[in-house]
Amino acid sequence: MALIAETTTNAPRPGGTPLFTGRDWDFPLLQRVYDAIGEIAEKELGLDIYPNQIEVITSEQMLDAYASTGMPLFYKHWSFGKHFVRNETLYRKGWQGLAYEIVINSSPCIVYVMEENSATMQTLVLAHAAFGHNHFFKNNYCFQQWTDATSILDYLDFAKKYVASCEDRYGQETVEQILDSAHALMSHGIHRYPGKHSLDLKSEQRRLEERQAFAEEHFSDLWRTLPKTATGPKRDMDAERRRQLLGLPEENILYFLEKNAPRLAGWQRELIRIVRQIAQYFYPQRQTKVMNEGCATFSHYRLMTRLHEQGKITDGSFMEFLHSHTSVVFQPEYDDPRYSGINPYALGFAMMEDIERIATNPTAEDRSFFPDFAGCGDAYGVLRDAWANYRDESFILQFLSPNVIRKQKLFRLIDDSEDDDIVVAAIHDERGYKAVRQSLSRQFDVGRQDPDIQVADVDLAGDRKLILHHNVVDGITLESRDAAKVLHHLANLWGYDVKLLEIEDGQTIAAHDGSPSRAFR
Amino acid sequence: MHIIDRRPDPGGKSLANRQRFMRRARALVKQAVREASGSRKIREIDGGGAVTIPADDVHEPSFHAGRDGGMRDYVLPGNKKFVSGDRIERPKQGAGSGSEGSADGEGEDNFRFVLSRDEFLDLFLEDLELPNLAKRQVMGDSAEKRHPAGFKTSGSPASLSVGRTMRRSLSRRIALRRPNPVELEEMRRELLDLEAKFGESERIAALKAEIERQERRAKVIPFIDPVDLRYRRIEVTPEPIARAAMFCLMDVSASMDEQMKDLAKRFFSLLYLFLTRRYKQVEIVFIRHTHEAKEVDEETFFHSRESGGTVISSALIEMAKIAKLRFPADEWNIYAAQASDGDNLSSDNARSVALLRETILPMAQYYAYLQVGRGEFDREDGVFARQETTLWRAYQELIRPNLPMAMRKVNDRRDIYPVFRELFERRDETAETS
């Protein structure tokens, strides 16, 4: 790298005066840095962002923010205290550093920056969060579809006040019980597919008319002459009808409880709703970890490099930036003691950098793998399209190039409990690229990470037992101790017994039961 | 873009959540605190610090996949030697990857966190109470506490509550419809207007009569009536004496070994800790004795040895002397704790008991006797039950209900805390008076 050759590290490069030279920063400097980044972000990368609100906080406040998943306001619950206590201990013992920033998907987009960051780090943080993440939040379809950035802070404010007023009225403990139970089911309080509306009378009428019209159009008297099947499978019309009325099967368990649990009071339903809405708000972030961090990391890397090329940051601070950048995108290998899964920053950044390379300087292999955009020249255009229209699973499936697979030496293992050994199914070679890519894509599919559990039926005429089904994939059943605890919470909300059946290929392979310990009143 | 400086915002946003968590984990934390106190050094006992509780009870469950069985499919980075089709022996369960998976909540890691000093002590000393805390002797005026206690109808002008008086005055004036000066003024002006216009009319006469009536009303109904007056009521309560003197008496004769001294020291530390929680000022007097007693500093008290016989009454006399000189009983709360192995000169027992009964106990708030043993079997129901020491038997004779004295035996480090709790456990009022 050429820049190491320079002797005085703080010497500005020709062609520009650096925005800052030392470690210290102040508010006017933040503004100047922001403007300088903003110009590059808009003109060169074509980023499209929400207005930003930069909030400078202390490390204490950062710890506070950690506890409530970064949100500036949140209702009160002991579990946040638990996270706070844990993070605080880790931090004070020096086992864990604090993030340089937290960014919130809202409009205006709130970016917390820590006061102890150096001027270089503040520049990096602004490039990463205020532009990278911000662009992603605003443009990615998952966020557009599921979250409303303009209203989330108002909603959290409402939630906080509502929970507090419930505590005043019904007692902290009662409220806590409901929240505990709802939190246990949070991962199953999400609508995964849009567009399911309950039928209103008008559309039902219309549907009926359409069906009649269809029947009239296709009427044929001949049908009448067909002999009736004597022993067709007799369907239980009552059960069908009941399930239909309750909207079953339903995978959003919290939604089902909010609408149908027989013994909940209005305020309890509202509390469940609050937990559900918040789970839904965070769902896109879980779906787009690699992309979100990749987008932010790629953006900050490009922006910082451009700033340096323009002479706006000194060689010294560019080195400081590179130091923290490389530690962010470090991917330990699988046999390294530091290995703890695939680093989304590293994977996202590597893939996006590779997309840029393919768009501008493709090889023959790239042309065969990515005929759509290899060599098209408009790297940022391709990236913006990817950032807008994919989530982790589809992004990897579409864009993971053989080059990245080779660089990271990715390989695929299959661990079948019925086999004695673990089998290496594919490695980074000609035959393996597609298998590795497919497998990695599934690894990042949130729909596969969360077990597929649905409310299947209710025995309304009998003991009101709620039946749930877990559709087992690849023979992986639920962890039974936790499942029993969650079912207990579920039973408390439902008010009666619940049963969870784990079903694979039509066979029930495991069952869990739960009974309410107390009925909420 | 705009920048907001949040740094001056009040901190402690998570305090409420932290407290909720503490409340939830209270039982566990309490147990952990007590266990932690056993392994700590005496000087560090009140330092707060980290305690560890099992994560199980504060675990947040969720539906997630188990770790056994099924077919799993991974992609890992950093392949070095594998080619596809290679078979790798499955690593044995628990071999090396034991802590794996704790991130998903399954690992039963213990939960470790730091308590502040106050949190630690609160839990540590929960439900304990100093006996006879309510010593009420007052030291003249300075020990009186004056606090507001509502209002009264009479009092000195200086204690008049203007706000309260005016409020009552206002409500009375409204109730009796005392005319408003503004309204009166308006009527007068209207009268002047009418007089200027018409000179004489029926309307004017009526207005005049009305004005006269209202003026009379204003005179009859006073602005402030004696019934409105309210004075601040101040109640004076004598303040309990907020300082205590703690006497530590210890036998340092040759029969007391280091281990027994350590037990005694633990007990004294706990007592000191406890007293500092309750009193603003706690003085400690260390008196050690063999056949003669001496007041010493802490270092000497615990660490230097002396040989000689054991005469407990010498320490009691010394204590009485010091108390008389420096800690008069009407100004100080006096607590005493005596530690001994019970081997007293047998001729001295009667004298000690007499001293206790006549001099020490009347002035003391509480007197605790701790008999330390060597950790050997000392069960009263055991076959080899040791004979009670003569001192123990002598003291036992002394014990009466309502006498501020208690005695316990301790043989092991871990007994100290339970014994301490037992001695200072909060008792019901009824049980105490009966």
Automatic annotation (TrEMBL), chain A:
Signal peptide from the UniProt entry: none
Which Pfam families does the UniProt entry name for this protein? SpoVR, SpoVR_C
> What InterPro entries would the database entry show?
Spore_V_R, SpoVR-like_C, SpoVR_N, Ycgb-like
Tell me which species this is from: Jiella mangrovi
Could you name the domain of life of the organism this protein comes from? Bacteria
Query: Domain SpoVR protein-like N-terminal, which positions?
Result: 24-447
Q: What is this protein called?
A: SpoVR family protein
Q: Where is the SpoVR-like C-terminal domain?
A: 451-504
From TrEMBL, chain B:
- Annotated coiled-coil segments of the chain: 184-217
Q: Which NCBIfam families match?
A: PRK05325.1-2 (NF003707), PRK05325.1-3 (NF003708)
Q: What is this protein called?
A: UPF0229 protein J6595_07935
Pfam families for this protein: DUF444
Please give the family membership noted in the entry.
Belongs to the UPF0229 family.
Q: What keywords are assigned to this protein?
A: Coiled coil
Query: Where does this protein come from, organism-wise?
Result: Jiella mangrovi
Q: Where is the composition biased (Basic and acidic residues)?
A: 83-92
Ranges for the region named Disordered are: 82-107, 144-163
